Amino acid sequence: MVSLPSSIPADIQAEFQSLFEQLPSMEHGKLIRQVLETILRMIGREADRLDWKILNYALLDMEQGFQIFYPYRHVRKITIFGSARLPAHSPEYQLTREFAQRISQQGFMVMTGAGGGIMQAGNEGAGPEHSFGLNIQLPFEQGANPIMAGDPKLINFKYFFTRKLFFLRESDALVLFPGGFGTQDEAFESITLIQTGKSNPLPLVLVDIPGGDYWHSWDTYVRDHLVKRGLVSPDDPCLYTITDNVEDACEAISSFYRVFHSCRFFGDRLIIRLKADLSDAVIDQLNSEFSGILAKGKIEKGQALPVEKGDETETLPRLILHFNHRDFGRLHLLIRRINELGIHHPETDHPEQK
């Protein structure tokens, strides 16, 4: 039996108890129980109206996000960030539109903030059928761009933090074009989350117009003021790719998923799921090149762990290693090396599927 706060009316307590009794037989019942217990604990403690409003709106944001993205969970998605102020005739707008068109033709879907400028260019290039719009409700901004307005894949978020959660949760690659404070914020926060392991490894591509120096100047700052001073690791710039070529930007994304599928931590082990098996010779080479990122042991081939039984990736081959939780730049290099050394198989022809 669950101990419910005495402030809850008896009839509602009875409904809760009935629900808790059914949870063991429900899918994800353990997690659902934890969510409900958290809410019940809040009922029994002091909380003001604003606390409950924040919780309510955050849950509503997440509810609509989960519902809209669920049917597309097996399609890889690319988030495009960049300035909302660049007009349609600007070279940056045209470049974004071309990139979005190219990457959507490969089967990827595109996500933007649903605003103007670079965001509109991304939705325009991909087309509404391959686009998501993650809009934010602001009193001083216009609504969604005309490409996404009225589209069922447009989500209007109350909070920036829930919106950002879905950008990063659903993204399989982040592509940034020139922009202002918001773009810089997205660049540094994305790198921070990847560098600290709070986000799974994924391609981070910084795209400029041909001959442009926006991202190269940014990279110079990172190397001169962060790397040289020891404030970040020398390998951290490996977390991103800078290019002024649309085809190279698309290749940086598709090649990342040539053999690599996904990864996940289980206890002190990192499980790297692969779309095709690797030879013993390749495993030996990876151990020779990347032993420095291991806390102990070696990189070994393996199968799904018992806790992964029933997972949609259960049949995929795996690499199992004790990662040191520090060298995420080197981990990205390991993934690239896996994609380079892995033998091509027909099942790797669709990097846009997951």
Summarize the structure.
This protein is of the alpha/beta class and 354 residues long.
Write up this protein.
The chain has 11 helices and 11 strands. The chain has 354 residues and is α/β, with parallel strands linked by helices. The strands form 2 sheets. Strands 4-3-2-1-5-6-7 form a 7-stranded parallel beta sheet, sandwiched between helices.
Primary descriptors:
354 residues, alpha/beta, 7-stranded parallel beta sheet, 4-stranded antiparallel beta sheet, 11 strands
Terminus-to-terminus distance: 40 Å
**Unreliably modeled segments:** none
Report helical residue fraction. 40-55%
Radius of gyration: 23 Å
Topology summary:
Blueprint lengths: L9 H13 L6 H15 L5 H21 L7 E5 L9 H15 L3 E4 L5 H9 L4 E6 L17 E4 L2 H11 L2 E4 L4 H15 L8 E4 L6 H14 L13 E3 L2 H9 L5 E7 L2 E6 L5 H11 L3 E9 L15 E6 L4 H14 L13
Parallel strand pairs: 1-2, 1-5, 2-3, 3-4, 5-6, 6-7
Antiparallel strand pairs: 8-9, 9-11, 10-11
Helix pairs in contact: 3-6, 4-5, 4-9
